[in-house]
Amino acid sequence: MDETMNNNEMERLYAETFQTISPGTLLRARVISIKADGVMADIGYKSEGFIRREEFSDEEMQQLRPGDTLEVYVEQMRDSEGMMRLSKERASKIKSWDSLEKAAQENTLIDGKIIEKTKGGMTVDIGDVKAFLPASQIDIKLIKDLDSLIGKVMSFRILKMNSKRSNIIVSRRIILEEERSQKKGETLSKIAEGALIHGTVKNITDYGVFVDLGGLDGLLHISDISWGRISHPSEFFAVGDDIEVKVLKYDAEKEKVTLGYKQKNPDPWENIEGKYPVGARVKGKVVSITDYGAFIEIESGLEGLVHVSEIDWSPRPKHPSKYLSIGEIAEAVVLRVDQADRKLSLSIRQTKQSPWQLVKEHYQPGQTVSGKVRSITDFGAFVGLPEGIDGLIHISDMSWTKHVKHPAEILKKGQKVDAVILSIDAEREKIALGLKQLEPDPWISRIPEQFKLGDEVTGTVLKTTDFGIFLEMEGGVEGLIYSSEIVQPEGEPIKDGDHVKARIIRIDTDERKIGLSMKHVGKAEQ
Questions:
Q1: Which residues contact 82 (CB under 8 A, 6 or more apart)?
Q2: For FRET with 433, which of 155, 233, 281, 479 sits at 20 to 30 Å CA-CA?
């Protein structure tokens, strides 16, 4: 009798429960007991339900206690064991979905974590629901490395929802565009020609820097970065730098902004002639070295060029890097100021005493000096003197008697020689030396006595030309056998090195020439 009543009571209770609860209902349930395969929960109405273990994480199971309340979803009123089936996961998803629908309707932001890359975009975990973030909706600019976004938590806006398919599409780009539009409005309210404004370096090119002013980009041209010399904008800025710039020009219609950086400071070239007149001594830092000279920065944005010829008094200066190094402080003298072309010429050698002044004070024409042959040219040889200057021995001053075709016949590079100073021109930095002047002029002291008109002489053939044969006679004196006075021997013709007899038929001491003839050899003097 009691058992029948209990069964009837149970059926009555289930009937009452069915009238109030049905599959799909969301309920608050109280944990009764925790078992290995799941959790028993009291949903009220003197009814109990069962939640499977798979719906709980290990951490949730460890923290769960009898008496705790859970929000559950009724999946099935009575299973094969007569137990009501409940789901915590579905309840959580339904609650999350309702929250997302509200966010979509009210156009509010939601937070999510990017968890993986998929075809065409990324997957975002926005709670108990996964959303799709198209690649075109990730950012305003193209993101090349999508993997770098995985694991990042960001704010998104819902673009589309499909409750039947449980599909959600979100966007981050739309948020960034709204923020940029807001910043742009704030920026436009502050922009005016001549205004100073802060921005972030967005991109660097060969011709300039693009600066994000807050929703609006401005161009800082390379020519407006520094008053001084600049090779590339990267010498001054890096992407991400926060910089203050000056608005040079603003085109409201095209929303084009031209910026300046150097204009924040006065132009150092203004009144430069007054600040650095010709002859003034200045000090500065060596900022660049080239093949043709070195640039010295006298003050910020103001550089002068020391040409390689103005570094040292040496007639053949070495490469500028042999005298100067980057960062070195150097003293120089202002040679020329060109404000229009913004050019400043400097000299380092002018800070030292000129060796030509020493030469002018210590040497005089007729004095004998010693030095080494530094170089040989077609017209003469340069001899280095102790003061660091070179003197020239012209080819015509190498021998009194020989016909010198090239200086290398007399001198060799590196040879130590004595020479006589012929002239000194300190202003034009020239000194003329003579080699033959070490001895008296033989055409005055010796040749007129040694050689007489009509004398027969024997000499060695030096060279044969179209107009005659040059013959070296006694004492190194040269004479010319005129082509009309040559007598070729039988057999082979006369060649260089042969010994030949000739008679003197002309002596000209003024022109330093002796004419010879082979036709009158052996004959009585005419």
A1: none
A2: 479
Among 351, 381, 412, give the residue marking a domain's end.
351
Concatenated DSSP letters of 425-438: ETTTTEEEEESGGG
Does pTM top 0.85 for this prediction? no
Percent of the chain with pLDDT over 70: 92
pLDDT in tens, 266-317: 888 888 888 899 999 999 999 999 999 999 999 888 899 999 989 988 777 8
Least confident of 94-103, 456-465, 482-491: 94-103
Taking the alpha carbons of 94, 100, 106, 109 in that order, is the dihedral positive or negative? positive
Q: How many CB atoms lie within 10 A of CB 455?
A: 14
In this structure, the answer to whether residues 336 and 387 fall within a common structural domain is no
CA distance 311 to 303: 16
Q: Rg (Cα) of the chain, in Å, rounded?
A: 52
Q: Do both 330 and 382 map to the same domain?
A: no
Tally of domains within the chain: 5
Judged by DSSP in three states, 19 sits in helix
What DSSP designation does 518 have? Answer: S
Domain match, 404 and 470 both: no
Q: Which helix (H) or strand (E) holds 310?
A: none
* Any domain includes 398: yes
Where are any strands of DSSP class E within 280-342?
Answer: 281-290, 293-299, 302-307, 329-338
> Can you give the CATH number for the domain in which 381 is found?
2.40.50.140
Which amino acid appears at position 379 of this protein?
A: F
pLDDT tens, position by position, 117-139: 888 899 998 877 788 999 999 88
Mean pLDDT of all residues in 360-367: 86
Position 416 scores a pLDDT of 94
CA distance 74 to 154: 34
CA–CA gap between residue 175 and residue 179 (Å, rounded): 6
